[in-house]
Design brief:
It contains 15 helices and 19 strands. With about 500 residues, it is α/β, with parallel strands linked by helices. The strands form four sheets. An eight-stranded mixed beta sheet has the order 9-10-12-11-15-19-16-17, with helices on both faces. The protein has a six-stranded mixed beta sheet with strand order 1-8-5-2-4-3, with helices on both faces. Strands 13-14-18 form a three-stranded mixed beta sheet. Strand 3 and strand 4 form a beta hairpin. It starts with 5 loop residues before the first strand and ends with a helix.
Length: about 500
Amino acid sequence: MAEAPKLGFGPMTAPTKGVLLVFAGAELRFGAATKAIVAPADDLISRAAAADRFTGKSGSVLDILAPAELKVSRLIIVGIANPADQIEPVKLGGVAMSKVPASAVEATILLDLPSGPMSSEQAADIALGATLRAYAFDRYKTKRKEGEERRTKPRVTLGVANIAAARKAWAAREALGDGVVLARDLVNEPPNVLFPEEFARRAATLKKLGVTVETLDERAIKKLGMGALLGVGQGSARASRVVVMRWNGGKLGTPPLAFVGKGVCFDTGGISIKPAQGMEDMKGDMAGAACVVGLMHALAGRKAKVNAVGVIGLVENMPDGNAQRPGDIVTSMSGQTIELINTDAEGRLVLADVLWYVKNRFKPRFMIDLATLTGAIIVALGHEHAGMFSNDDRLAESLQKAGQATGERVWRMPLGPEYDKMIDSKFADMKNTGGRDGGSITAAQFLQRFVDKTPWAHLDIAGTGFASPQSDISSGWASGWGVRLLDRLVMDAYEK
């Protein structure tokens, strides 16, 4: 994995070496501090802009090598013609970081807009965006293509008006950034490295942040009666695990907020085996669990003033001679029986037992589960929104607002008794799939049978958890989607 940049904050002064990156509005308008710093190169900038037809259009770049009038090796001007109130600092930080050359050892980014210097909060958001954009997962590469540069560990200084205030604001963003990076790392790892026991071991490293971590082995899981979860993993040589992570930052005795993640470390589909083409992507079928671990890291790292519990069910879905079969009937922890129609509809079996366990043990204020659950949600929403199903309007509204604020958007999908009938079984209490029609909805209806009256939301992240379109702050395969969304939900709706 490429090392993260060394981010720091400094004064808005002219650097004496490295890359200098500044922002310009329409017609090459600079902020006052920037204008003073680049003044010696005014004529050069004007001629270069005219030659390149650079006008400051948002996202455009003017790159000037070795400007003799300045002491830096490179001057990069990034256009931001949008009005100041339309600029999203996190995205802008990602854009800025993407313009820093891969060979750069040192870079200075002046956080000065035509409208004036950025606030400390905006500066911290810029730093977050830069951190997320700089992420790359290449730890297993030993050779590089001819001419391909390996990104160094650049020292990036963000020039700000108030260094102390920016550092204070960055403390919480840094923990959040670390949480997203952790989630991305987990999703990107190959399945021969990250199997249930190893995933549990990595989750246990949160103890160093003050998170209480409890790992349930198969003996403990069986004792609890989690027959649905154990059935998924019984075809694998790798033992299943359930990991319980608790962060107690709120008042003693206050019911926790609960987050549940699907952690299928590799999904072959079991006996209902998937096609070979693209099956390698199924190492990412644990993106929901990765998000929960990343979120717990973020909450603990920034000392969130809430009680929170994160629980993940970790299994491998493999097709050996001991694997469960279509037609089998398993008994869940709730006592409800489930007829298996398709062993590739396995994630809901894992979540069913974990949701029931969390509901009864912790009696939380709400439960939110995240799962790369259905291809049907991609057909419905593509890769731009996660599907949201909920039995609680207030929780759904809060998630919607958090999604708009972070760009990790959700779209509410319907639930209803008509869909529920589609998963009734002739031989058991329910079956694990209702067929192709409304596939993401019937999956959510299945999960709803294990939450009772607890406020609950199910986020189907099959289209956003991995292999989603690249963005200004995510240029890799794993997105870490959901960490920023849920951290914002907690901060805005439950900490104040």
